[in-house]
Specification:
627 residues; D-amino Acid Aminotransferase, Chain A, domain 1; 4 domains; 23 helices; globular; binds adenosine-5'-triphosphate
Length: 627
């Protein structure tokens, strides 16, 4: 594929303000790509060269990009720099300079996606002395052959500022659009979907025959929509156990929907974690689960450990490779009794002698680049393991939880660093409550109750896990993770920080968009304000990002990237916020929201969802009316 086709698609995507239009443009672009190049196209759409877990960072500084632009367009670096200061977007600067290029290059050839990818990969992987000059040369070489609009993206990608706002769910929606024709030919799938449609209209005997033309058309449309959704679900099911959209896209191109069957869980490729629901009391938990396992809830890092013979890889909650941060755990994994395994646990600093759990502030210090070995000696972490998903070639996700835990215990054996989470099995609310109090007394966060017979459901929040936290004793029952979508400049004393408040949103999974829920101005220290202003200024957006839905206009929009944990007194109805808003239905807002901290372990799509907020709102009324 010509890189021009990709650049022009990016330009169209950048201009739209509705997610549906964006999805259609992407579908068109994917349709034009062949099986050999589709993975690269997908990664480039997200400003990457590989799925996030592979940790390939292009990491080019602005300084070097300026030099490359100057070289390619025949200007001085100072001239480029001056324009950058004025415009604040080096992509646009590159576009402008290429329009008024002083020299025609001798070796210019039309750029292909393959060539661009190859050079960017070289830029990402070149190290050592002389590497900077080589990186500049590689980028300038691309710019030499680029049109102005291509130049805009050739600069933005290596700088990490592509920011088209294309989320994983939108990419999967686009795949599903392109697979509709195949789905229509899949008799079995059509039959299942039709059955559901008919079921919906049960009671109307012979309804089919009576349909007039208009209704028939409507029904076909409905069937197509449902078919698309069914395909989309199949894709997401696989994505949940194989977090690589490029790989999935290639499989779909080569073998169609059926190709998905070949995709299996394997060590080294991260899965999406299962998540916990909330209930406010021990009684409600027992009513829902009956006899269940109740585990201590530790406040550390959730880690997924992958062992493949001698190779150990550790993934974070957002599927990033964090192996290097946990040398003591890597060492301990080598001793477990399985050659291949995928298991999960919460890692935190624990003093075995005093049996004390260290506060999260100590555990979090592990998130650093240097002195990790020193930290590992000073505050060694213990991995409290709670689930086993795969062992020695077998996918165990379908087994009941109690069986998985049994096998996990056997595999861990006697290990000092990796141990099982503390747990009891009970069907008594009183016993659950006592265990909760005991856990909180030990400085833990609370408990997680688990359905003994449930499968492991990757990527979903279901009632197979129910959390009960210390903080639930407050009005709202839990903290909420919101995504920053804009900020206000601040008045009075706050003007010095350039930031006075945040506009935040929750995630709507159904529409893959972010819906406003709160303006937040409290809870931030001066240091936090300064830091927020610094990081948010880098992701400013001139207009409302396409996946953001908000009627409130902040002074400055930002790309949905950062998640913050927020406390609030309650959830109230709101005519101005868009979370949960629908025709004839008001939205929901947080009352007296206060920022607690940045949640760097969460991606925006892992923030609290609109559905959860609606459930919490209902629960809250339920409690306050004493019903
Ligand atoms: P969520 O993970 O539900 O989106 P969150 O990241 O804000 O929310 P919590 O609300 O604290 O986390 O609850 C779930 C998390 O608790 C898990 O993701 C895991 O990191 C942690 N955890 C601690 N102890 C356990 C345990 N025994 N079993 C499962 N998870 C545990």
């Amino acid at each position: 594929m010509k890189f021009k086709v990709l650049a022009e698609s990016f330009d169209r995507v950048e201009k739209v303000s509705k997610r549906l239009e964006m999805t259609d443009f992407l579908a068109e672009l994917f349709e034009k790509s062949n099986a050999d190049e589709i993975a690269r196209v997908i990664y480039l759409c997200q400003g990457q060269l590989a799925p996030p877990y592979k940790d390939v960072e292009i990491g080019m500084g602005e300084n070097y990009a300026e030099e490359a632009i100057a070289k390619a367009a025949g200007y001085t670096k100072a001239e480029v720099e001056k324009e950058f200061k004025k415009r604040g977007d080096l992509g646009l600067v590159a576009e402008e300079f290429l329009k008024k290029k002083k020299q025609q290059s001798l070796f210019s050839a039309e750029l292909t996606v393959e060539k661009v990818f190859k050079n960017l990969m070289k830029i990402a992987t070149t190290e050592g002395s002389g590497s900077q000059q080589l990186k500049i040369k590689l980028l300038a070489e691309l710019l030499n052959s680029a049109s102005p609009v291509e130049a805009r993206y050739l600069i933005r990608i290596p700088l990490g500022s592509l920011r088209l706002g294309i989320g994983d769910p939108t990419i999967m929606d686009a795949f599903a659009i392109n697979l509709l024709a195949e789905a229509q030919k899949d008799k079995e799938l059509v039959k299942t979907v039709e059955k559901k449609l008919k079921g919906k209209k049960s009671g109307e005997k012979n309804a089919e025959k009576k349909l007039n033309e208009k209704r028939k058309k409507k029904r076909t449309e409905e069937l197509d929509k449902k078919l698309r959704l069914a395909v989309r679900e199949k894709i997401e099911d696989k994505y949940n156990v194989h977090s690589d959209l490029g790989d999935l896209a290639e499989t779909l191109k080569r073998n169609g929907i059926k190709g998905l069957e070949k995709i299996k869980i394997e060590p080294g490729i991260p899965l999406r974690p299962t998540l916990a629901e909330r209930l406010p009391t021990a009684e409600e938990i027992i009513k829902k689960l009956g006899k269940c396992a109740v585990e201590a809830k530790y406040d550390g890092f959730r880690l997924a450990i992958h062992k493949n013979e001698t190779k150990v890889t550790i993934f974070s909650r957002r599927q990033e490779d964090v192996t290097e941060m946990f040398p003591e755990i890597v060492k301990a994994v080598k001793d477990i009794k399985a050659n291949e395994a995928i298991f999960e646990g919460e890692a935190l600093a624990f003093n075995e002698e005093t049996q004390e759990y260290c506060p999260f502030q100590i555990t979090i210090q592990r998130k650093r680049k240097y002195d990790i070995d020193k930290m590992a000696k000073e505050f060694p972490l213990t991995l409290f393991s709670f689930d086993l998903l795969y062992a020695n070639g077998k996918n165990l996700m379908g087994l009941p939880f109690k069986k998985r835990r049994e096998r996990l215990g056997k595999i861990i054996g006697k290990n000092k660093t990796i141990i099982l989470t503390d747990a009891i099995v009970t069907d008594s609310a009183k016993e659950l409550e006592e265990y909760f109090d005991k856990s909180v007394g030990k400085g833990l966060e609370g408990i997680i109750a688990k359905d003994l017979n449930a499968k492991y459901i990757a990527g979903a929040r279901k009632f197979s896990w129910i959390k009960l936290k210390r903080s639930y004793k407050g009005e709202l029952g839990d903290t909420i993770d919101t995504v920053i979508v804009g900020f206000f400049k601040g008045k009075g004393k706050r003007t010095q920080f350039g930031l006075g408040g945040l506009l935040t949103a929750v995630y709507d999974k159904k529409s893959d968009s972010f819906k406003s829920i709160a303006k937040i101005g409290t809870g931030m220290s001066e240091e936090m304000l300064e830091n927020l202003c610094k990081i948010l200024s880098k992701i400013k957006s001139e207009k409302k990002p396409a996946r953001v839905e908000s009627e409130i206009k902040p002074d400055i929009w930002v790309e949905p990237k950062y998640v913050i944990e927020v406390n609030a007194d309650e959830i109230t109805k709101s005519p101005i916020h868009t979370a949960g808003k629908a025709k004839g239905k008001e939205g929901l807002a947080l009352r007296f929201p206060r920022m607690i901290k940045l949640r760097q372990d969460k991606k925006p799509e892992q923030a609290t969802t609109v559905k959860e907020i609606e459930q919490m709102f209902k629960k809250q009324r339920h409690v306050s009316t004493g019903a």
